[in-house]
Amino acid sequence: MATPSVTPDQVLAALRPIVDPDFGKSIVDLGFVKHLTIDGARVAFDIELTTPACPVKAEFEKAAKERVAALPGVAEVAVTMTANTRGRTSGGAAQPQGEILPGVRNVLAVASGKGGVGKSTVAVNLAIALRETGARVGLLDADVYGPSLPLLTGVTGRPETYERRILPNEGYGLKLMSMGFFVTEGSPVIWRGPMVHGLIRQFLTDVEWGELDYLVVDLPPGTGDAALTLTQQAPLSGAVIVTTANDLSLIDARKGLAMFEKVNVPVLGIVENMSYFVPPDLPPDLPERRYYIFGQGGGERVAKELGVEFLGEVPIDSRVVEGGDAGKPILVYAPDSPPAVVLREIAGRLARKLAVLGESAPPIADANITWVSS
Ligand SMILES: Nc1ncnc2c1ncn2[C@@H]1O[C@H](COP(=O)(O)OP(=O)(O)OP(=O)(O)O)[C@@H](O)[C@H]1O
Ligand SMILES: [Mg+2]
User: Could you read off the pLDDT of 158-167 as tens digits, one per residue?
Assistant: First the structure.
């Protein structure tokens, strides 16, 4: 008589101790285990993560394989890691859900209380970092007065239209939209208030964004009219505030937070940019020396005071400027440089926060269990 094969319950019980640290729950109870197939001594299943940017992907895969392989009656285990980005594009928008950006799962606003703190740089690199994980990502430069996306990405040219829809440009695997694609370089961009509203609305409704896991929005600087319009019109899932460590910038970061609170958009955290400088000519055998040019810990202090997460310190690095000027964001220009490494970490943290904010997981009944007992 052949040994009885393992049961789905036994497999799920073996997987249950694997806990997702972001949700604090078992991957089984979260409904991550899908397409479980038991064919005699062969067991196969998918683990569907809530974001491709999951930092514990490899650990999950290994633990799942080992645990199931240890069950009596199992000779072979095949685990497929997949991702289905959870989303919550509701925010505080007054719009009926689904009408604006219907195919976009998460809209992440990158804001700053004041200009020049590196908001656009952070936005572009976060978008690329998310894209690197395999997610489908768009980047909207909503700064209609000072669009910087063409310069930062090297992508130019008037977007094409198809059946009265505007097709975004593409670069670095991202869908890109910016007022800068429509104006010629050097000509000043002068929009009056009502025009700004209209333009932003068009970017949200007339651009063919298609299916995206993340749309990163580089907001206009400050808390003025243009920024406010966007927070009211776009179904923002969450916002991140970029600041530098000096007091003036920090005061403005507080204003930024207040703006999002007013429209019920969760602030996912604060990024401190140009935090410190590491002399590149230090001998490699010396411990890294960090110079905190604008003072240390300001961003972290403000984050604590405002009750939001501090997402990280991005160091000041001349390669950010060089790359930016050459249309090559730091993640591409110097992928292993300290700012690139930190920005990638921040992107991962944001993706997980968005996943947790997203809709609750489908029940286990969804798991599509196929049990071929032979
Ligand atoms: N970490 C960094 N290290 C060095 N330079 C940086 C860093 N971050 C940004 N910069 C540089 O600072 C300048 C301003 O950055 P950026 O354009 O991203 O700021 P911004 O907040 O979007 O500005 P604006 O308010 O004009 O839209 C750019 O020249 C950019 O290359
Ligand atoms: Mg900018």
Answer: 999 998 899 9
